[in-house]
Structures are given as C-alpha cells and as structure tokens.
Design a protein that fits this description.
Blueprint: H1 4-21, H2 26-38, E1 56-57, E2 63-67, H3 75-78, H4 86-97, E3 118-122, H5 135-151, E4 157-161, H6 163-175, E5 190-191, E6 199-203, H7 208-212, H8 218-235
Parallel strand pairs: 2-3, 2-4, 4-6
Antiparallel strand pairs: 1-3, 5-6
Helix pairs in contact: 1-5, 4-8
The protein binds iron/sulfur cluster.
Iron/sulfur cluster (SF4) binds near residues 29 and 137.
C-alpha cells in the first residue's frame, strides 16, 4: 500500500516529467531556447537547461514558496528554481539561516543543496522576455501550481514572493472553489483564511531591483521566515 509520502513523491516526479516536456506557450518556448542557444558571455561553457523549470524541495514541506518565473541566465541555465539567479543569492542564504536549507549556496542541480520542510515553485516555469509572462501564459501554467498544491499535503504556509505571486495563489485557490475577500499585497502580510487553507504570507520578491534599493533587506526576509518557523513551533506539529 502506498503511504502519503510515497503518493506525494511519485506524484511530484510524474508532474516534473510533464512540466519539463511542456510547450503550451509558444513565445516562452522560443525565448527559453533562444537564450539557451545564444548564452551570456560569462556562461559560455554552460550547457543551458533551456526547458521549463520544475518545482524543487521537500515533498513533506510545510512551507511552500511561490516565485514569479525563472531568470533567463539563472534557472533557465541551471534547471533549478532560483539557482544561478541573483534572487537566489538572497533567498537561499535566508532559507539557510532560517533552517530550511542545508547550505546557502545554490549554483547548479548537482551542488548538494537540499531543502528541509520547504518547497519552491513559481507561477510560470519558463523564462519570459523582460521577466514578464503574459496573463495567458500565467493561465497556461497555473494547473501545475494547482497540482503541486494538491500533492504537497503537509503545507501550512504559502509564502508568495511579490505581488504577482500573491495574486496568483489567491486565483488558484478561488478557481478551486474557495471563497474569501480579495487580499492586497503588503510585505510581511499574514492571512489565516481558515476553511482548510494554508496561511498566505507575503514578502517582496528578492529580486536585485528590490535588494539593491533596500526595499527588501536580509533582515526583512529573515523576519518573514522566522515568523513561519514560529508558526510551526506554536502549532506543535513537528516536521516528520
Ligand atoms: S510557462 Fe508553463 S505552461 Fe507555459 S510552456 Fe512553460 S511550463 Fe508550459
């Protein structure tokens, strides 16, 4: 008989295979492949991934982190969420400090990084031109996020990175039949919606634009993740 944990792992593996083969968005398929062919000078010796980037992390995660989309020369190059992206240089060290990662460095799929109690995904899984998927591309990709949410049965907190992710998570839940008032994005938001939904938390996206301007500091991201850990502690349900 299958355990809940093997159901999740098998389901995530099958989903990953489907995601990697996906070609639903012609504009993004063309762009991710063009970037992978042409490369950036600094990464000429890399064999770019150039495909959709699947979710990454612990199948028993209580924390689900939702970003926007892969970076052209970051995760579109390495094949793992936030890996090689400038945003990952802020996110992974913060996850390490908060106890959600075994190391702070994220360079490639083979760098030994493991997440504990956290899973990272994105609203769109292909690198978009100018870092901006269209509404139709978000719609095309949302079923994959829905499936991850179904499979990750242990999630108690969804942390949306940035307004688009925050709105995208709400839309995903509404499409699944949950009703709740429209929530407005603010950094540090914490919405306990009840009705069997995880808490929806929010942080500014750890993009270079936000970190270089001081809109998001290390301390601000640390505070958000500390609140998540405190929530788990208060619930008293240890990570299995
Ligand atoms: S963005 Fe999502 S739906 Fe569009 S091609 Fe990539 S994986 Fe498929």
């Amino acid at each position: 008989m299958k355990t809940a944990s093997s159901y999740t792992s098998d389901g995530l593996t099958a989903l990953e295979e489907r995601v990697i083969r996906c070609r639903k968005c012609p504009r993004l398929v063309a762009w991710r492949q063009q970037v992978a062919r042409e490369k950036r000078r600094a990464y000429m010796d890399w064999d770019y991934w150039g495909k959709p980037v699947p979710g990454f992390g612990d199948p028993r995660a209580r924390l689900l982190i939702v970003g926007l989309a892969p970076g052209a020369h970051g995760s579109n190059r390495t094949g793992r969420m936030f890996t090689g992206d400038s945003s990952g240089e802020t996110l992974y060290p913060a996850l390490f400090r908060a106890g959600f990662a075994n190391q702070s460095a994220a360079r490639s799929r083979e760098d030994g990084l493991q997440l504990k109690d956290a899973f990272i995904t994105a609203l769109a899984r292909c690198a978009p031109p100018k870092n901006r998927p269209t509404a139709e591309e978000f719609d095309n990709c949302r079923p994959y996020l829905k499936r991850e949410i179904e499979l990750l049965q242990n999630v108690h907190v969804v942390l949306a990175l940035g307004q688009l992710a925050f709105d995208g998570v709400q839309r995903t839940w509404r499409e699944d039949g949950y009703a709740f008032p429209r929530l407005h994005f603010t950094h540090g938001a914490w919405h306990d919606l009840g009705a069997g939904l995880p808490v929806l938390a929010a942080s500014y996206h750890p993009s270079r634009q936000n970190t270089n301007t001081g809109r998001l500091t290390e301390a601000m991201l640390d505070d958000v993740l500390a609140r998540v850990q405190m929530h788990f502690y208060d619930r008293g349900d240890a990570h299995e």
